[in-house]
C-alpha cells in the first residue's frame, strides 16, 4: 500500500500486453541487464554516448521490471544499449552526472513470454526493425524458446520464421562486405532465388564470390535468376574466375529476336560455340574427334560460302 501512495500508476498497452507502470529516476547501479535479451552482439556505441551527452542524459526512459532475485533492484525490459552506454560514461569516462536514469517501472516481474512480446512490440515501432533486427530476433528466440513458441511470439507461421532464421544464418557467413551492416540485404537477395536452383554447392560458390569481392553489388544477385536456369551460363559463373557478367554473355538471346531460315541457323551455331566456357574448351584440347568434326564443318561452310558467292 505504501507504494500505491508514493507513485502515480498508469496503464500502458504494448501490443497484446497490458502493463501497470510508474515513472521514477533510478541509479544505474541498481539496474541489471536481462541475459535473455533477443538482441545479440555488442551494445557499446560511441555515437549513442555522444547523443546522451548532447541531450544531458538519455532521452527515452528505460523500461524496467522489479528484479526477481534482488530486492530494490531492477532488470531491463527495454533500454539495454542506453543503460550500457550510460554506464560507460560514468565508470570509464568518470562522468557521474549520467548516473541517474529516467525509468518506467512495471508493478511486477514479467514472464519470459510477456517480456519478449513487449520488447518485440517496442522494437517493431522503430526504424531498425527493417534492417537486421527481425531476422536476428527470430534466430535468437528459436534458440531460447523453440520454433513453435518463437513463431507464436512473433505472430508468424513456422515457415515464415524458418525463412527469417535462414536469412540471418546466411548473413553471418558474409564476412567481407564493404559495409558489414548490409549483410542482411545480401542474404535476402540470395534467399529470393529459386530454391531448386540454389543447390548447396551453388550457394557455397555465391558466398565465396561475395566474400572474395568478385560480386560487389547485392542487386547483381537478381541476375542469377537468369544465369542459374541455363546450364552453360551456370557453369561459366561457377568456374574459377567466373562472374555474373561473363555468365550472362553466354546466354542465348530470346528466340523471337533470331533471324529465320539459314541466317538464323548460322546465328544459332555461332552463339552455341560462343557459349562454351574456356575451361570446357581447354579440356577438349587435342581431342581428335572434336578436331575432325571441326574440319568437316569448316569444309561445309567453305563450300556453302563458295556457292552463295557465285
Outline the secondary-structure elements.
Layout (H helix, E strand, L loop, with lengths): L1 H5 L3 E5 L2 E11 L3 E2 L13 H9 L7 E5 L7 E5 L1 H12 L8 E7 L5 H13 L8 H13 L1 H8 L3 H14 L11 H9 L8 H12 L12 H4 L3 H8 L5 H6 L11 H14 L3 H6 L4 H22 L1
Parallel strand pairs: 3-5, 4-6
Antiparallel strand pairs: 1-2, 2-6, 4-5
Helix pairs in contact: 2-3, 5-6, 5-7, 6-7, 7-8
Q: Pairing-aware structural class of the strands and helices? A: alpha/beta
Separation, N- and C-terminal Cα atoms: 112 Å
Helical percent range?
A: 40-55%
CATH-defined architecture of one domain: Alpha-Beta Complex
Shape: elongated
* Uncertain spans: 1-5
CATH superfamily of one domain: Conserved hypothetical protein from pyrococcus furiosus pfu- 392566-001, ParB domain
Which strands sit side by side, in order, in the main sheet? Answer: 1-2-6-4-5-3
Average pLDDT score: 87
Measured by DSSP, the beta-strand proportion falls in 5-15%
Described by strand count, sense and barrel closure, the largest sheet is: 6 strands, mixed
